[in-house]
Design goal:
Elements: E1 9-10, H1 14-21, H2 26-44, E2 67-71, E3 81-85, H3 94-114, E4 126-130, E5 139-141, E6 146-148, H4 163-177, H5 185-207, E7 217-218, E8 233-234, E9 243-244, E10 248-249, H6 265-272, H7 274-287, H8 295-304, H9 314-329, H10 333-344
Length: 350
C-alpha cells in the first residue's frame, strides 16, 4: 500500500495545549503557545531528514533495528546533529539513550510478536530527534521520523520518559504503511487508537506484563508531579486520566453514547479514540495472558490484511476485527471476546 504523502501526528492533542495556552500561569501559557505554533508549522510544512540522516540498508540487511538519534539543540531544524547510531555505546545524555532504547523496544515488539520488520515491514531505519525547540511540550511523527520535546517542566516532563509515547508515535508510521487510515473523524480516531494500542503493547512487551498486570495508561510519567493526573489517556477507564485545575479534565468518552462531535482536532481524533481504545482493553483483559498474543494479533491482522478503507468508521473496523478473529482462531473465545467488547462500547459489528 502506498504510504501517506503528508502526516503529522502528535501525542498531546491540540485541545489540551489550547487549554494550557489560556492558563493564568504565564510560564505554562507561554510554553503551550510556543508548542502550538511549532506544531502548526510542522503540520503545514512537512519536514524531511537531511541527506544521509538514515542509514542505507544493504541487500538482506533486515531483521534488526537501524536506529539513529539526533540532537536538535533546542532548535527546530531536523534532524539535528547525529549523536548515537545503531550499535554505538550509550552517551552521557539520558534523553538520547531513552530515545534509542524506545526505538528498539518498538522494533522488538513488531518483529518478535508479529514478524513485522520495523514499522514498514521492510526494515525501515528508525530516526529520532531529541531536544526539539525551547520548552516544547509534545512529541510527533512527521511521516519520516520521531521528534521529542523536553517539556516545560511545569506540566510536561521529557517526552522520552514514557516508552509507550515512543511506541505510540512510531505506530503512526505502522499505520501509514499499512491501513493508511485518514487522519480525520472516525478513521482519524482509529488511527490514534491503533497508536495507543501498539504503544501500550510496546510497554507491556518490554516490561513482560500480562493484560491483567498492565496499567493501560498512555503517557504515564509524562506529567510534572504537581499535576493532578496519571497520564494523557486511560484505555481502561477513558475520561479519568487527569483532572487538574490547570490542565482541565480528560474529555475522552468510552462509549458511543458519549461520542464527541467537534470540528477541532481533525474531528476529535484524540478524544473519540477512547471508544476503540476501551474496546481493545476489554478484548485483551477478557482473553487474559499477554495482550499482544491474541488481542494484539487480531488488531495487527486487521491493519495488515488490506481490507480496511482509509476512511474506515468504527463499525467497519469492529466488523474487521470479528472477521480477523474468526479467520485466525475460529469460533472460539477470541471471537466471543471481540463481539462482547464492541457491544460494551456501543459499536455495531455487522
Amino acid at each position: 500500500m502506498t504510504p501517506q504523502t503528508s502526516v503529522f501526528c502528535s501525542i498531546v492533542p491540540p485541545h489540551l495545549l489550547e487549554h494550557l495556552a489560556r492558563s493564568s500561569n504565564a510560564a505554562v501559557a507561554s510554553a503551550a503557545r510556543r508548542t502550538l505554533v511549532a506544531d502548526a508549522a510542522a503540520r503545514t510544512f512537512r519536514v524531511l531528514p537531511l541527506p544521509g540522516a538514515a542509514p542505507t540498508l544493504a541487500a538482506g540487511d533486515t531483521g534488526r533495528p537501524h536506529r539513529t538519534v539526533h540532537d536538535c539543540g533546542r532548535g527546530t531544524d531536523l534532524p539535528g546533529a547525529k549523536v548515537r547510531g545503531e550499535g554505538e555505546e550509550a552517551v552521557g545524555d539520558a534523553t538520547v539513550n531513552r530515545a534509542y532504547a524506545g526505538l528498539g523496544a518498538t522494533f522488538d515488539l513488531f518483529l518478535n510478536a508479529f514478524g513485522h520488520d520495523s514499522v514498514d515491514g521492510s526494515g525501515l531505519p528508525l530516526i529520532a530527534s531529541v531536544h526539539y525547540d525551547e520548552n516544547y511540550g509534545n512529541a510527533f511523527w512527521n511521516g519520516e521520523q520521531m521528534v521529542f520535546g523536553d517539556g516545560d517542566d511545569e506540566i510536561f516532563l521529557d517526552f522520552t520518559l514514557p516508552v509507550d509515547v515512543i511506541g505510540h508515535e512510531l505506530a503512526h508510521g505502522f499505520t501509514q504503511y499499512t491501513a493508511n487510515l485518514e487522519y480525520f473523524s472516525q478513521s482519524g480516531a482509529l488511527n490514534e487508537s491503533v497508536s495507543d494500542v501498539f504503544g501500550s503493547l510496546v510497554k507491556q512487551y518490554a516490561r513482560g506484563q500480562s493484560a491483567e498486570q498492565a496499567d493501560w495508561l498512555i503517557g504515564e510519567g509524562l506529567f510534572h508531579p504537581n499535576v493532578q493526573g496519571t497520564a494523557l489517556r486511560s484505555m481502561k477507564a477513558p475520561g479519568t486520566a487527569y483532572d487538574d485545575d490547570v490542565l482541565g479534565k480528560d474529555p475522552q468518552p468510552g462509549h458511543m453514547d458519549d461520542y464527541v462531535r467537534t470540528g477541532r482536532d481533525n474531528g476529535g481524533v484524540h478524544i473519540n479514540s477512547g471508544i476503540p481504545n476501551h474496546a481493545f482493553y476489554l478484548v485483551a483483559t477478557e482473553l487474559g495472558g499477554n495482550a499482544w498474543e491474541r488481542a494484539g494479533q487480531i488488531w495487527y491482522d486487521v491493519m495488515t490484511g488490506g481490507g480496511l478503507t482509509p476512511e474506515a468508521r468504527f463499525s467497519e473496523f469492529a466488523a474487521a476485527t470479528v472477521a480477523a478473529a474468526k479467520a485466525r482462531y475460529g469460533d472460539g473465545a477470541e471471537i466471543q471476546a471481540v463481539l462482547k467488547s464492541w457491544a460494551a462500547v456501543g459499536v455495531p459489528t455487522d
